[in-house]
Amino acid sequence: MGIRLDEPLHKAVGDRTAKVLHTKLHLETIGDLLRHYPRKYVKRGQLTELSELEPGTEATIVAQITKVSRRPMAARRGQMLTVEVRDAADVPVEVTFFNPRAANALKPGMLGMFAGKVGEYHGRIQLTNPEFEKLDAESEDTDVDSWAGELLPIYPTTSGLSPRMIARCVGMVLDQLDADLADDPLPRPVRARQGLVPLTEAFRRIHRPDDWPQIAVARKRLKWDEALPMQVVLAQRREALKALPAVPRRRVPAGLLDTFDAALPFTLTAGQRQVGEEIEQDLASEHPMHRLLQGDVGSGKTMVALRAMLAVVDAGGQAVMLAPTEVLAQQHHRSIVQMLGASADVPADLFSPDPDAGLDPARKQVKVALLTGSQNAKDRRTNLLDAASGAAGIVIGTHAVIQDHVQFADLGLVVIDEQHRFGVEQRDALRAKGETPPHVLVMTATPIPRTVAMTVFGDLETSILSELPAGRSPIATHVVAAHEHPSHFTRVWERIREEVGAGHQAYVVCPRIGDDVPGNASDASDDGSELVSEPGQLRPPLAVVEVAAKLAEGPLKGLRVGMLHGRMAPDDKDAVMRAYAAHELDVLVATTVIEVGVNVPNATVIVVMDADRFGVSQLHQLRGRVGRGKWAGLCLLVTESPDGAPARERLAAVASTLDGFELSKIDLAIRKEGDVLGATQSGYRSSLRLLSVIDDEDVIRAAREEATPLVEADPTLQGYPVLARTIAVLVDGERAEYLGKT
Ligand code: ADP
Ligand code: MG
């Protein structure tokens, strides 16, 4: 009778050891320990190409100690221990310990594993204070060749707990494990279809591999242990959402939407039409839509959203659009009102809401209300009232405000604009706004790789706008190395002057806001050279306040330069954005408040200062602010980071393609998994050990394909008790709660 995975560790390793494993590594159960996988493996014996050690790298060597000598240290008290080790090829390497206490065990003839940074001292290769593990040939292990070729697992650990000790504990547990573990969470048919080994075998192979292929087989199987539960949870969620009731909002002929379509100054792209039809079908369903709309910057997502909102208003419901920033909410409000033209009911009766307005499916006008955190109390009250009474057919606002305060008369559709991180919890909170759950359309700020769509947004159906509207102008992107080519940097400001001279506008983006007090502009020279630091001098990131002042007095003197950043009063922000949109300003110096969504087609050039401080997707978003009109766009990425630095490569990547999907992959490769999954996915994140959301697209996709029919046939996993239990453990308390809620 073997041990079970969910049993406490002390059953297998004894109380004392169990306690150490718990305090050091938070391991509680047999399963926890078995899922504490090796970080890497070293091959005992041959692994050690001592001759190939390179100074400056981290290395693990396995070698035999040939000499041990102690001598007093010159500068400090105590002794220094110098050990000579040799590998099979008889190459000597010097290992020095400044802390002989740690190395008391070292004796000539002993085989050991040394891991640390490779150094060079007087021309000789040296390891200083490496981690040390004694390797002993188990007595019964007489086959020298297989012993030398054995792969030794190296475990992640903390001080006070050696990898060797972990290996011993794992060994004890493996010895007590049943050959055919009853509690394998992966259903047998799934294993059979996907060619996955049973769990016990996977554990044995990953902890005690005979060769590399065994490790690969084990890792594949164990990745499924992470991917399948995740996809089952998402499939359950999709099923639960599908089962919710919703008010169907069927398309009403000759309503606001038809009027709008008839007045459109352009034709919809094929993608917009197709996604529009998908949404129309979803909205007509008696279950709520949960759709993710992906499209590159400028692909016309807002248009798709507005048409969906009008369809819902036509059908007698209300629609709400949430923007991530106040600037964007204000802009949406402005542009939607503008696009609606005579169909928009604003703002004449804004302060005298018609109490009988109610919801009139036949109405020819729609009131568009704006709700932001900074509104004065009176405006806000009016808008809240309009939302609650149903007088406002469309409500636009920032996430926070709408989530916290707003009640609706009959909320039919929630559009979440330009938001990557709008997690499951927030979507749930919104769903609770209506008596029956509203339809939900999520629009991402940048295209996201499929793996992310299948994980972070795995509970949503996906639509993609793959083409840009016709007549979109090309954008040229250049990296301007301010240090290396001062003349190019001067040219940046000339280019802005040229564009402004031709009747266009420019953005200058800086990473920081800066002091409240504008910088002393009097010392500004004509060429803006003071915006470049002395070579080798570290300076703080450039700030909007200072750069705006310097440009206005220096290289852009005479142009109408405005400023926009997050610390300005919201009314001021709005006023500046309006002025810029109305071409009352030539140049807008801003932080990334303009990153997403801002739409001023007359702007043709964007200069990003300290561009190396921005992420790839961010730069792509920023670049999307130009090239929105009939005129070619220009994006200049100014940097002082040296040629060859990773930051420069990132900038070169952005300059090399306009394809947001391509760039999002590059971005992902740079960012860490945790970032990808986002704060709301903490339950998943902590459960991912082997599975990479970035690299394991094939496993994630296959797991999704297995999970979907499995959950459809057996939503509560009655037939899969071990899988169900695994999921219950995996899904932390918080998460379990909102899963139960749907
Ligand atoms: P994004 O997907 O980045 O949110 P927007 O919805 O802001 O893109 O659209 C960008 C610009 O393209 C807007 O000015 C919008 O009016 C315009 N636009 C949208 N659809 C079309 C189309 N089919 N043809 C021409 N222009 C369009
Ligand atoms: Mg947009």
From TrEMBL:
Q: What is this protein called?
A: Probable DNA 3'-5' helicase RecG
Q: Which PROSITE patterns match?
A: HELICASE_ATP_BIND_1, HELICASE_CTER
Residues annotated as domain Helicase ATP-binding: 282-465
UniProt keywords (A-Z) are:
ATP-binding, DNA damage, DNA repair, DNA-binding, Helicase, Hydrolase, Nucleotide-binding
GO MF: DNA helicase activity; hydrolase activity
Q: Which CDD domains match?
A: DEXHc_RecG, RecG_wedge_OBF
Gene name for this UniProt entry: recG
Q: By its UniProt entry, which InterPro entries does this protein fall under?
A: DEAD/DEAH_box_helicase_dom, Helicase_ATP-bd, Helicase_C-like, NA-bd_OB-fold, P-loop_NTPase, RecG/Mfd, RecG_dom3_C, RecG_wedge
- Pfam family of this protein, just one? RecG_dom3_C
Q: SUPFAM superfamilies given for it?
A: Nucleic acid-binding proteins, P-loop containing nucleoside triphosphate hydrolases
Q: Which residues form the Helicase C-terminal domain?
A: 488-669
Q: Which domain of life is it from?
A: Bacteria
